[in-house]
Amino acid sequence: MQTRLTINGTPHDLDADARTSLLDALRNHLDLTGTKKGCDHGQCGACTVIVNGRRINACLTLACMHDGDEITTIEGLGQPGNLSPLQAAFVKHDGFQCGYCTPGQICSATAMLQEVKDGWPSHVSGNLTGAMDLTDAEIGERMSGNLCRCAAYPNIVDAIRDAAEVKA
Amino acid sequence: MNTHTKMDAHHVMDAPDHRNRLDDMAQGILGTTMDRPDGPLKVTGTATYAHEDHPAGMLHGVLVRATVPRGTLDGTHDAAVLALPGVRRVLHGDRFLRNPAQGTANEAPVQGSREIFYVGQPVALVVAETFEQARHGAQRLVLQMTPGDAVTDPTADDIAVERDPDEQSSMGDLDKAMKDAAFSVDQTYTTPGHTSAAMEPHAAVAWWDGDKLTIRASAQMLKYNKNEIADSLGIDVRDVHMLAPYVGGGFGGKLGISPEAVAAALAARDLGAPVSVAMTRRQVSEATMRRSETVQQIRLAADADGVLTGIGHVARVSQLEDEDYAEPVTQATPFLYRGKNREIGLELVRVNATCAGSVRAPGEAVGLTALEIAMDELAVAAGIDPVELRRRNIPEVDPSDDKPFSSHTLEAALDDGAKAFGWDGRKTKTTDGDWLVGSGMSSAVRVNMIGESHARVTLNPDGTLLIETDMTDVGTGTYAILTQIAGEMLGVTPDRITTVLGDSDLPESAGSGGSWGASSAGSSVFLACERIRQEIAKTLDCDEGDLTLKDGIATAANRQVPLAQVLGDAPLTSTGVIEPGKTSEAVRQATFGAFFAEVGVHRVTGEVRVRRMHGSFAAGRILNAKTARSQCLGGMTFGIGMALTEAMIFDPRDGRLVNGDFGEYHIPVNADVPQLTVNFVHERDPWANPMQAKGIGELGICGAGACVLNAIHDACGVRVRDLPATLDRILDGLPEV
């Protein structure tokens, strides 16, 4: 099935089985293995990518549903020597150990900070409208779709808070 | 292979090393919070895990699972699957692994796909051109099975019990001590099965060049793993090349090779093409390793001052047939506390369920957790502060054999932790809105050891440094600490150091597991560097002890010479080898710590939230304060999961694992974990190794769950003895709203 995906600004013409998930398209067809497969069921968040500005689980969507979409993967956020503020903060705060969930965490956090900026409330927000304070509870709540078995959670919270403050 | 030259440095740990040589070095990077050198690769998605090197023409394999707990596989309807588009092969047979190899097995586990021993046993592999085709073929493959008699309930009354004589010990008269005790506890505690649940599922990519196999795998211990692969395939180990430069978590689940690796190698040989096999998450849960469930009977007898006079700890665990491993639940019980009257035992029953093996801190993770709940019960019964109760029960020597401790830091950790947490001013039996709030604590202990380990260090004329060993970094920080040890010893800045790991052609290390990786691999690097220092000193005509190396400059006897000048044109290479010796037996070596937690229990729903949690730990010399802390955070979080949510549930009717994915097996998520705090207590343990460092990878989970459960009791009066403390186990005991 022919699908045109724009990934990290570069158009790719994918010719893949209609059953191919966006995750498997990235990993197996386009050799963009930065996006990880941890569960293939939308339960761990390791495959989080940003599609048209929103974070989604790439394992829960078929590649052929994204014809014409703009997709940002971890490879598009920064490279060794040219890290994004969040990537640099994850290194500084040890926001990972084995590193397998990390690209998903960082893609998720990148989009999450925009959601906060746009005033999207979460389960722990004090009210549904108005500016959101990026408290530790807000970060923890909004990042709970990204599992980390090494459990770098406190460091992930520190890294995101740090990067958000630098950005602000 | 490890050739011996005069530049080798071979050290057997037969005597304590009091020199504290690393304290004399000048570079100033060891023990710091240096960032991981592998960090930039990991945060950009450019670190290559097992399933991320895709050789041209690579085919995809998907495993097929048995659906009965015992029986025979009489046939598979291959033809229908082979007719599907893209399907190239259906494999099964005598070389398929029934289950993974145990840690350090060094040989193949039970093999063969004709006899079925548990639900989920991999019995076939479907290989196709694409993953989607292979998955479809695997789903369509019809298995002809004859069910046999299975044992699926480890708690059945009539189940046969095995008692390994080496695991049973008895001293004094515990029954009498219990009768005479001023205060006592006699309770049964249960813990469910746990799964390692590393985020990277087990995966392998295999290809052959003639008789030579190259396999990229997700593996913790290459020295053993390559032999396990060779034995499984019936080939010479010299024809096996394993690569595991980055491993997406292990936690014991990748100590030995597992079924996907051998299946990939078999298929690649058969098809003459590279083959990848990645387990699904459910397959990881079913067909790798589980920590056995435990039933633990604990008896504590104490005098009027709370000093223990007796300890009974008898645990029952389960295992698949033809496997020797039994979760060593009582491993730390003999030496942790006082009490000369003892009954300690381990019982094993056989079940048709996922193979039992190592999950982070086998033994102490569950054994100490139960013991520390019992200690809390004793503290409550005796009316003694739980920290004080533990202080009063620290033995002078190992009570089981009167051996001295190499170093004992439990009291220091208790004191440090109590202070850091604010134990004296803690919230106890109080409320905060709808939350019942309380605090709890527990001790941490983990046995300490090293394994034989080799590493090669090369100091180049341009001042750069190369470290090579088959050691793995499973997230533990190996890249960082080996870089720091070598940089510290040889005065080289980290940016000029390359550390190469995870390649079975490199000098053989102990591997990652049992908290011994940093001490073992680190010591081998230390020894190689020490040998290189001696060579530099010889060139400069000074004693090695008088040599200062910093930032690429050698200083000796008021002379400063750039290393490049000392070396001339030739690199200096040394292979360091550390081997365990008499210090393993002469003294009792362990790491110690203490946990403190404050929890809230919702008065209406019974929901438990950990509000804050602290750990103070001593593990000898800390090699990297940042990565060591991260290891502790990880262990403590495993403890939160063990206390509150984690349980493998097997259907007793048919042995099926009910909750083999993250939707149903609940590991802690970010919102479940507060901003944990960690302190390290200063220690140098001369008996451990030449670095005076000890393992830190597992200490953080050992007993961690107990401090949460003890805090629940303090908050709401409910004593949870059957883990985890899910709502149903708390609700009935809550006070009336």
From TrEMBL, chain A:
Checking InterPro entries in the record gives: 2Fe-2S-bd, 2Fe-2S-bd_dom_sf, 2Fe-2S_ferredoxin-like_sf, 2Fe-2S_ferredoxin-type, 2Fe2S_fd_BS, Aldehyde_Oxdr_Iron-Sulfur, Beta-grasp_dom_sf
Q: Mind listing the GO molecular function terms for this protein?
A: 2 iron, 2 sulfur cluster binding; metal ion binding; oxidoreductase activity, acting on the aldehyde or oxo group of donors
What keywords are annotated for this sequence in UniProt?
A: 2Fe-2S, Iron, Iron-sulfur, Metal-binding, Oxidoreductase
Listed Pfam families: Fer2, Fer2_2
Q: Where does the 2Fe-2S ferredoxin-type domain start and stop, copy by copy? A: 1-77
Highest taxon of the lineage: Bacteria
Give the protein name, as stated in the record.
Xanthine dehydrogenase YagT iron-sulfur-binding subunit
Q: Which organism is it from?
A: Loktanella fryxellensis
UniProtKB/TrEMBL annotation, chain B:
The protein in question is named Xanthine dehydrogenase, molybdenum binding subunit apoprotein
Q: Its domain of life? A: Bacteria
Pfam families in the record, alphabetically? Answer: Ald_Xan_dh_C, MoCoBD_1, MoCoBD_2
- Any GO MF annotation of the entry: oxidoreductase activity
**Domain (Aldehyde oxidase/xanthine dehydrogenase a/b hammerhead) ranges:** 44-149
InterPro entries per the UniProt record, alphabetical: Ald_Oxase/Xan_DH_a/b (IPR000674), Ald_Oxase/Xan_DH_a/b_sf (IPR036856), Ald_Oxase/xanthine_DH-like (IPR016208), AldOxase/xan_DH_MoCoBD1 (IPR008274), AldOxase/xan_DH_MoCoBD2 (IPR046867), AldOxase/xan_DH_Mopterin-bd_sf (IPR037165)
Q: Which organism is it from?
A: Loktanella fryxellensis
